[in-house]
Design brief:
By secondary structure, this protein is an alpha/beta fold. The chain is built from 10 helices and 11 strands. The protein is globular.
Amino acid sequence: MRTVCLAILNYNGVRHLEHLLPSALEAVADFGQPCPIVVLDNQSTQTDQQWVQKHFPQVEFIRAPRNEFMFSYNWLAEQRREEVIVLLNNDVRLTRGFLQPLLQHMDAPDVFSVCAKSLSWDGKAATCGPARLLQHHGFYRWHYETDRQELAHTLFSSSGFMAMDRRKFLALDGFSRLFYPMYCDDLDLGFRAWRRGWRSIYEPRSVLYHRETSSSASKWACENLLKNSLLFEWANLPMEGRRLERLARTANLMRYHLMRGKAEWPRMWFKTWWSWVQVREQYRQCKINKAELVHIQAQIDSPVR
């Protein structure tokens, strides 16, 4: 088994850490191998460091140079020496046997990441599954197949609960700044890994509970999700043969929103398009053709061996 550490992204999160850290210590004890637990703090304004050091002195507390959301992991990966880093949001709770199933796949030389199974905080519903890429009316979309709880390849692993190969992560230059501050960064990362021939796996035997927060439904979050979804398509995916269909669908969506007095979607689309025009030459090499996409999807659809 390769060397491993758990990295927990945190910002003013004591109310979450009081649930996560005891479960993380139990999971590491059950794992039975050395596995440092690191709280990567994004410049919390509260007394998180004092609380962690008082109640969990065996846990490393590392303050990131700046609050850069998920992108603080790019900095951390350069500082650590472990071969595998398990990325965790602070709003999760691990089961005792979480680590062994997650990490057993990481010994394969072509595996980039492994995604755990997340349940709602009350344990009643799966909130994650193998991720798939679909196309509808010329647009691409991706979703978790939550009703498919089996070992499978996945388009990407959620950055909130995944194990990743640290050296491969650095070879990919980490999370792309195109998607700052949040959303689709893990999607883009997993897709770029598949292009390099590095697999991502969904492992449902590795289970945690996720306390999903209302912040994901805020206007700011919704706008960032729309922006980064468009940027992922424009930067990575083939558009040949579907441009007219996409233009017609986009025009219909704009008309639909405007007729209802909701200008946010059209305004965000144009704002994103203009920002993309400024940077698209930097990402021209990221675009793949249809044949490459078909090949990647065939690999994702193949069984895990």
